[in-house]
Design goal:
The structure is a single chain. By secondary structure, the protein is of the alpha/beta class. It has seven helices and 28 strands. The chain has four domains: 159 residues, MoaB/Mog-like domain (Molybdenum Cofactor Biosythetic Enzyme, Chain A, 3-Layer(aba) Sandwich); 48 residues, Molybdopterin biosynthesis moea protein, domain 2; 85 residues, Molybdopterin biosynthesis moea protein, domain 3 (Molybdopterin biosynthesis moeA protein, domain 3), CATH 2.170.190.11; 73 residues, MoeA, C-terminal, domain IV (Beta-clip), CATH 2.40.340. A hairpin with a 4-residue loop joins strand 8 and strand 9. Helix 1 runs parallel beside helix 6, helix 3 runs parallel beside helix 6 and helix 4 packs across helix 5. The longest helix has 19 residues. It is elongated, with a radius of gyration of 31 Å.
Amino acid sequence: MKQAGSGRRASQDGVQPERQSVSVAEARELILGAVSPLGAETVPLTAAGGRVLAEDVEASISIPPHDNSGMDGFAVRAEDVARVPAELAVVDDLPAGRRARRKLGPGEAARIMTGGEVPEGADAVVMIEDTEQAGEGRVRVLAPATPGQHVRRAGSDVRPGLHIADAGSVLRPAHVGMLAALGRTVVGVAQRPRVAVLSTGDELVEPDRLADDGRIVTSNSYNLQAALREIGCEPVYLGIAPDDPDVIRARFRQALQCDVVISTGGVSVGDRDWIKQVLADLGGQMRLWRVRMKPGAPLAFVSVEGRPVFGLPGNPVSTLVAFEQFVRPALLRMMGHRALYRPVVPAILDEAYEKPAGRLHFVRVRLEERDGTLHACPTGDQASNVLLSMVRADGLAIVEAAATGAAAGARLPVQLLHRDDLRPEPGF
């Protein structure tokens, strides 16, 4: 953790305009207003699952293309089996994928498999369970049939011109299957951002360099990369930069080759917190610097060469909470998503929670349903360095900025952390 310093650089960085402190809602609006979808690209259908459509999709063919059987059995003329038992001559054998050799005439039937094309002249299918062999090349039908019985009509699923999906829709497995059924092999989707991830701090080491020398592992680098992959972004890890402005500046120049940059650490006001000054040196336009929330108050959002740069705090819980509230929705918007936010549900708080007025608090909670009501219990120590509190959390209970806490039994909104049914509005 960085030591607090005099903050003497805070008024000398030359970054303008700057907003010293904003609410969570203001920060969200400011950040989302500054990003937009990256553009479109064409990908093979095999790689399209989970991507966001960049084109409207309409059907160009009928599905199914011809009347086909919904059962294994015999294609018949319904009038021939209105009275049963009825014996018919079997004149064709129609597995799925083979066209009929001839039109079905009076007193005739064709053996047919599920999906097989119903021959001309037939208007019903009798299940094989309702038949028996009546001699060589003949079948005895034991149950009457009505016109259309067990027949899937041509175009009953899709007809030409039918609207299938809008641009902005997420391609689920059924969408991909439908595109394949329509004969598509490629599809236009929104681009996915390449996101540079950079950690800063002399105190950090990679996991395989951990030793009893006072330094700690750069866990933020790994939780951020996992969070980016979870939503389909491509993380580009740039390692750890020491608390040296020249090294940090060089790493940021490298990072700016990506679409988005995320750094962790160095965004406070200590003598070794260089992020603000370095971004100013690179011509960055500061959009915001602090958010009235806990954890995660020190948060830089800067535009450098038209690229969004997020300077997240160094404590691991602060990093993850800030990512959830601001970075994740922004990246989803850049990827063409219309629904950007995790679900928020009401829950009863099992333990009292105290806080001073002034900042919105995100309380890590476990969720349990009891007697049809959702209950939330804090996951233990809520300090921003206690990563275990996030590991155990099902959601973030939201205690408003003006409140001085929440009593046991209070009903609070809880943002769910492990649900992907996203919503177009934040819910708090």
